[in-house]
Amino acid sequence: MAIETGGWVTMGEVAERAGVSKITVSRVLRSPDKVKQETRERVRAAIAELGYVPDEAAGGLSSRRSRIVGAVISTLAGSTFASTVDGLGDRLRQNGHQLLLAGTDYSSAREADAVAAMLGRRPDGLVLTSTTHRDDTRRTLEASRIPVVEIWELPVDPIGYAVGFSNRDAGAAMARHLLAAGRRRMAFIGTAGEDDRRGRLRYDGFAEVLEQSGVAEVRATAAASGTQTARGARGLAAVLERWPDTDAVFCSSDTLALGALSEARRRGLTVPEDIAIAGFGDFEFAGEFGLGLTTVRVPGPDIGEVAAQLILDVNAGLEPPSRTVDLGFQVIARATT
Amino acid sequence: MAIETGGWVTMGEVAERAGVSKITVSRVLRSPDKVKQETRERVRAAIAELGYVPDEAAGGLSSRRSRIVGAVISTLAGSTFASTVDGLGDRLRQNGHQLLLAGTDYSSAREADAVAAMLGRRPDGLVLTSTTHRDDTRRTLEASRIPVVEIWELPVDPIGYAVGFSNRDAGAAMARHLLAAGRRRMAFIGTAGEDDRRGRLRYDGFAEVLEQSGVAEVRATAAASGTQTARGARGLAAVLERWPDTDAVFCSSDTLALGALSEARRRGLTVPEDIAIAGFGDFEFAGEFGLGLTTVRVPGPDIGEVAAQLILDVNAGLEPPSRTVDLGFQVIARATT
DNA sequence: CGGCGCTATGTTACCGATAACATAACAGCC
DNA sequence: GGCTGTTATGTTATCGGTAACATAGCGCCG
Which positions fall inside the HTH lacI-type domain (chains A, B) (predicted)? Predict the structure, then answer.
């Protein structure tokens, strides 16, 4: 932290000060054991005195390893992916990589732009929360030879790899839980458009189990605008208007479920006696000291960590045993069902 | 999307195919109006045919503009900063920049590491959620000549710029709200360690108003481990044990407030009749169709957007009118007070 | 008609690192 | 004592772009 005449200190300046060549400085940073201890210390001292920070972009250009992983996330708001991004960033950091983030707001056009922008950084890997892409996006990614990990679902034919769980099975599991609790006239509340994809899969699994049970009916609704809680409230209102005898609702997210809870309360209904309400995600507010909401817990942070590790492994030459990693989910029964 | 013999297409290859020199391709990308339309189209065609994606790292190395902005965030989980990061990323994207993200988990040692790692990318700007830093971190940043924006608080002496609001004033405003609602024996529930800093400021403002009112008492407690909701629940329990006549609690976050609500309910207390509960943040679950929680709304997305714009402006040579931007806050009175 | 100012394009020299190969010094071995 | 292998360090070329300075062609003006 010293001389720096305005700009950045370069490796050459460090080398000069330490009385060695650039490459020796490079070795001290990347493979210290190839340098004699005495030299190493001299170089380290020069680095400290000058406050040298190596330029990773230059290094990456030469070594063809950017040490950057890109994450293309629909949105961080709404609790869903935040913990996954935390997990991802954490694991990457531990391995000397950095995380580049882009949001798509559930638009595949924006996903295409984000992917193109990220490819410009020649990332060592790419993580996508969406599992449906524009054709050209998919082709570009396949041609890029960069490890791509799709998360939060297990696509039949992943671009590269996939880490997540089966949304369909999760919906089915919740159906079984509600059946076991004696419910028979059940509705699903989702959101239209956008996040649709995964929600749709949850619904499919849910509906299938109910139909096959032969004893229960399924109803479904989705609200398209407003906050998630507002949609949940309107969703429950719509369900009860059309099917007043509904005795359970499964919401595609905990936030929707909270909206439904507030609507139920507003109507003077008792949960779970009059109606059972279940959510999805096990967000913090759903927990024991929060709403006490029955929900499906998904391994958010683990998904991020496993996705990161997968990328690191592939780049280290270790071909993983499977292209798809199923981290499962868990139905958490609490007070609302 | 075509020939690509395994690696990446370079600008030179595009140039050759279009029958021009590299620099002309570069101009088509960066300043298209300096190139004759006919040439421009030929180059664009070549770019499309070859599926060329310019290497931003190489470009940045040469132009000394990385088009990267770094954000050092304590954590994404917990709703607090997610919307800010969304806003930040959005504004950056619109201006051709990308967002590099690092988490610190509220540790200033990890902040120091993250800052060092980011500086290695020569970012065009840096955004920090923390406003307390290790001395060396601060010095490094000051020496770097990179625009630094501290957010979610208005430090007296910012490193570079600051965008946020006064946590102290926010605490004070909530105190006035509760006083006006007739409450007199109030407690503050915060979290120890970590996030402490901003929570402490909220408490200071809260306590000051109450003391100066001459009619109200203040109590404070903080829980140090467990989930936020669990801390809120334990916080309320601790408060009521020690000061059973407490008639209002102000929690340092909505999540804590939810924990307190659940504890109140568990004890058979009616909110707000027996006890008023207020939170901070106006997370989605606190809203009208959620908990209906009285809280303080802060402009999360705006903070991100304004911080991004500030960095873009400074890099464009526009010195902003002030180093500090106060975006304010708003007390939202709902059903719990 | 020579010179000026445009417009359109090209040439050269980097930016700051690393890979790959080269070299020097020295120890160990037959 | 010469050969080989190992350790420690250096030299050169290159990664893929962009800045800065050329250059060429052309219209226009006095």
Answer: 9-63
CATH of B67-165+301-328, one of 3.40.50.2300, 3.20.20.80, 3.90.1150.10, 3.30.1490.20: 3.40.50.2300
Segments making up each domain of chain A, as ranges: 11-54, 66-165+301-328, 167-297
- The domain defined by A66-165+301-328 carries CATH number 3.40.50.2300: yes
Decide: A56 and A83 in contact? Cβ < 8 Å.
Answer: no
Q: Shortest CB distance from A227 goes to which of B113, B262, B284?
A: B284
Per-residue pLDDT of chain A (337 residues; tens, 9 = 90+): 444 444 899 999 999 999 999 999 999 999 999 999 999 999 999 999 999 999 999 999 999 999 999 999 998 887 789 999 999 999 999 999 999 999 998 899 999 999 999 999 999 999 999 888 999 999 999 999 999 999 999 999 999 999 999 999 999 999 999 999 999 999 999 987 656 789 999 999 999 999 999 888 888 888 878 899 999 999 999 999 999 999 999 999 999 999 999 999 999 999 999 999 999 999 999 999 999 999 999 999 999 999 999 999 999 999 899 999 999 999 999 999 9
Q: Is the Cβ atom of A330 within 7 Å of strand D at any atom? A: no
Evaluate whether ipTM surpasses 0.90. Answer: yes
Burial (CB count within 10 angstroms: exposed 0-12, middle 13-18, buried 19+), residue A226: middle
pLDDT digits (tens, 9 = 90+) for A118-131: 999 999 999 999 88
Helix (H, G, I), strand (E, B) or coil at A26: helix
- Fold of domain B11-54: 434 Repressor (Amino-terminal Domain) (1.10.260)
Encode pLDDT of A323-335 as tens digits: 999 999 999 999 9
| Cα–Cα distance measured from residue B16 to residue B27, given in angstroms and rounded to the nearest whole number | 15
Interface residues 62-101 of A with strand D (CB < 7 Å): 62, 64
Domains A66-165+301-328 and A167-297 share a fold: yes
Is domain B167-297 given the CATH code 3.40.50.2300 in the classification? yes
The gap from C-alpha B266 to its chain's centroid, in whole angstroms, comes to 34
Taking phi first (over 0 means left), then psi (-120 to 50 degrees means alpha), and beta for anything else, what does residue B194 get?
Answer: left
Tokens encoding A19: 């009385």
Q: Nearest Cα to B286, choosing from A290, A45, A145? A: A290
Q: Answer whether any strand D atom is within 7 A of the Cβ of B5.
A: no
Å between CA of B42 and C1' of C2: 37
Please, what is the Cα angle at B29 between B25 and B30, to 5 degrees?
115
Q: Which of residues 83-112 of B touch strand D (CB under 7 A)?
A: none
